Amino acid sequence: MITGPRFSKWKLVLLVLASAILTTNAIAQLSTATLFGSITDTTGAVVPNATITLTQTDTNFVRVAKVKDDGSYREEFLPVGPYKISVSAPGFKSLVRNGVVLAVMQNAELSLSLDVGTATETVNVTADVPLVNSGNSTIGQTVSNVEIENLPLVNRNVDRLLQLVPGVQTVSTINNLGYQEIKVLANGSTDGFVGQVSYYLDGGLNMTGLRNSGNQIPNPDAVSQFNVVTNNYSAQLGRYSAAVVSVITKGGTNSFHGSAFEFYRDRNFNAVAHNAGAGAVKSPYNLHRFGATLGGPIRHDKDFFFGSFAGYRFRTTATNSGNLPSAAQLAGNFSENMPSDITKCTDTPSTADNTNIKFLVCNPATGQPFANNTIPTSSLDPTAVNIVKYITTALGKETKQPFRTGDTPYTYRVLEATPEQNEEYLIKTDHQITSSHRLSLSYFLLNYSIRNNLGGFTQAWSYSNYANKQQNANLGDVWTINSRTVNQFWLNYTRQNGGRIPVTSDPTKKTLADFGSDFGVVGAPSLPNISVGGVQGFTLAQAITGPKAGANVYNVRDVLNTTRGKHSLYFGGEAGLEKDFQLTSLNNYGSFTFSTTNGAKFARTTNGLSDFMMGVPAGMGQDTGLYANANWYSFGAFAQDDWRILTNLTLNLGIRYDWQQAPTDPQHMTSNFSPGVQSHAFQNVSIIGTTSKLAPLGMLFPGDPGVPVGGAFTPLNHVSPRLGFAYDPFNNGRTVFHGAAGLFFGGISGNEWEFPSNYAPFAVRNSGYTRVTSLTHPYSNDPTEFPGGVNPYPQLMFDYKNSAATFLPLNQVVTMDPNYRWPYSMQLNFGVQQQFTNSFAMSVYYVGSFNRKTPLYNDINGPQFNITAAGASGASCTDLTKACGYANSSATVNNRRPLNSMFGNSAANPMYSNVWVIRSNQNSNYNGLQVTLEQRLTHRVSARGYYSWSKTLQSNTLDATSGLNGTFVDANFPQLEYRQRSDQDRRNMMTMSFVWKPDYFDGYNRVVRTALNGWTVTGIWTANSGQPFTVTTGNDNYFSGLGNNRPSIIPGKSPHTLPQSSRVGEMKQWFDTTAYCRPGTDAGCAGVGPLGLLGNERPAQLDVPGYRNVDASLFRSFNIRESLQFQFRGEVSNVFNLVNLGTPSAAMNSSTYGQITGSGGSQRIIQVGGRILF
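Given the sequence above, the corresponding structure tokens read:
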């Protein structure tokens, strides 16, 4: 029975009252900063009648405040940048403090002391704010403009510098939907279509909720700085639960300033990959990044502008390969492959046969070898013959690449171009409208495109053009109401629109039907994906495409700050509307697999290539496309008190309430599943191959009793209490203890919420057809797959408006748990900051993050294992331990699914395959020690670094970085939720960065000064331990349809990596492969579970090799004239050309088992460039 969430208003009242006692840290200002402190005389007595004037020296922005009776002051929502602080009071000398620089989201303390004297006397001091944070308990870090402009950025992507922040475990940029996504994992957070990090640009949301990923940000010449908060951030922020990344672009000043730049990379600058092999030739590689910036005043001291343009052009090639049939094979003559040592189709080929490409071609109808290993011309599949002729002709126009070691006489290698480009535009204006109102406006536009090659013979078959357009518009206003009250308002709009368009090399060949097949595509035309296995195999690749994917995001936020005595109070809220969209064809083009093994019902020829030439696939998949939408509103309200209870103790107390609507689709394309319950939501239902007028039993839809429109009930109890403190025990501003605890609710991605719409009845997806007649006539007359022997896909229809739905047998279904709960995180920290000198500080923190209610897709219809020799059968079979009489094999996977033999359904004619239910039942824990060091510029050197020692544990099926598909539940063997290491668990992580300006030659003659001064050397050193991986058998002994069972550990052995004296030795054998055996395959191998067929190995016990890297840059600035410079730059990634190894082959049936053949990072890459600065 489906029920709504149980919620008591009294629980909410109690929770709110408790939260008033246990609340949060300082407010996070996404584009501004806070400055506070106290004014005293030289004896330490407060000066209550002082006036403090803050002047931002770039724009002459001024804020004047009166010091309170207790000598304290606090100023909120200050523009970032350099400041001059002036303090005056009767009976004291005036004080001017220069060199104060405020950073984004900084909560800086600056306490000043006045000397007795007259106001006409002035004391000038130059010094920055302290390095320790005495204002709040937030853990995070600001990456300054000095670091952005000086540290090596070979890719010119600012997000690369996120690695400088402790707690950030992974930073990656991917493009799977037609637009680029930034994904950050911090302090054990997960991703997998969920996303737990918020991204902001100039104070406005800069992310796409389709997968909760960050959007692209402007080029480094346009970025001022960015801040990353990784633990116990403000109550103002509540959209996601792991971290906040806030980027601020540059702005205009009273002086015109800007830059023009060009950066270049070429293959001649790059090192050859360590695993490329002897004689490897570098692929063509040509990259240009160029652009310009300009900022300045519109009206002096009043209005300012800043603009930026940047372009990117990248041309490279990739070598793709495959095997093509010889002329004789194309005619069906495989006599050249006739083995000499086997004569029967049931014989197992020897290793020598496989090495020398020898195999028997067998008649599928008789199971006997063809005479002379030759397929009669009449038995060749005309579609297959047409495809090979077409590919051969197309490849004949390409330049064939040289053979490599390991290639066969059938190998064909060609180069494929992969052009990529973008253009970005930024315009930003700031306006001091009145003395009370400061308005900021910004607009960012990015156009991006890339040709996405799919592998195999892409250039002769098909590829995809990816293109996207990103837009960000922000409006912000800071209103100084009076000396004690300031309000900040923000409005923003973000749009991301990407697309993936399939392109065929021949416009006349759009689908498989153009080669003579009966296969029918529903929706946008596209060529199929064909995979031919075996040593002579090849791939004609295709991928999911769709012209639209992205989101429109609207958000408004308002924060009011008022100071009352020792309390700095914040009140505010935000509201948002997100509209995600995805128009996709899915796998409507068809996917065909030709394997190297015999089949059961539809026998095959024993070799993938001869199977293909006869058009006898081992399996086929086909989908229908869809246009899915996920729309939702969100609201948040918060209150906070930064209470300076003592001069050396600040409490950060706050509370937040969030309401995020369960996303809805305009066509109500979502579902629930309740076994045995009948839906009556549709008036017109058709199940192909049956006479049923009712939806398949168990599937429920909006309109059925108890089924929410969004698939799940919107929770009402997202109350987030947070508490933090900052304590300076010696009241000297050099030693500060911090501690905090808080609750942080996350959000749901649109892609996750749209998953039900990707499956029956909204879109039909079936990748498990195994009884296909041929490539030319794929739709067999088998009642379980293609009733009537015709293509059923044109008949499939979902029409919400007319209450109509169509279903196929073997429906693959994804549904929502109606009682699904949003993920949340409980965060803790405790530690100390110590400033040893005016320029050097250190911090040591314990950081904990405990993620709960993370989603997982559980298959409730997993095939049951038959533990008896013969179980009961028939429609009345409900004993799951007997699997209804079907033997355990890959052919009976769907027959052994329990929902197909219960509630009157027939196991012989199954209605369902997978039934995935999206549930919120997974957890992960992060515990870490994080140590940071910071050295401000002293003796021309500045440096910063961190070391973290941590452990991340998770539920056994939770994957931090990919889709969240879980294991099925077997009544015979309820698989334990092993707590295991996360796939992002790196026990040790260390990063150090430095900027060195060796201008030590001012006292020398002009020649020496000119030659040796003006250089800058910078670097980033990274060292991380490896991530865990799991050894697998590579096969499906348990016949679950999932494959890759875990092996058992041989008694007396233990899993461990092998110490090697060289990288070559590590590549040959990374771990002890003799420690494992395969239950049910290897003699004497003991397993667990039914019949002992499951391995006893625990997951994630071994680590991949660690990662080491040093990036460096060297540049020199030349003065052309006053305020005009030319800067020549050389930047190097992996300057020492260190070899980082990839993940070892961990499948026991692999020919490279235990070996490392891939790379864990690129070899040395050099970039040269020039900048004109003014």
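Residues 1-27, 598-602, 869-877, 958-965 have pLDDT under 50 and may be disordered. Try to locate this feature in the token string yourself.
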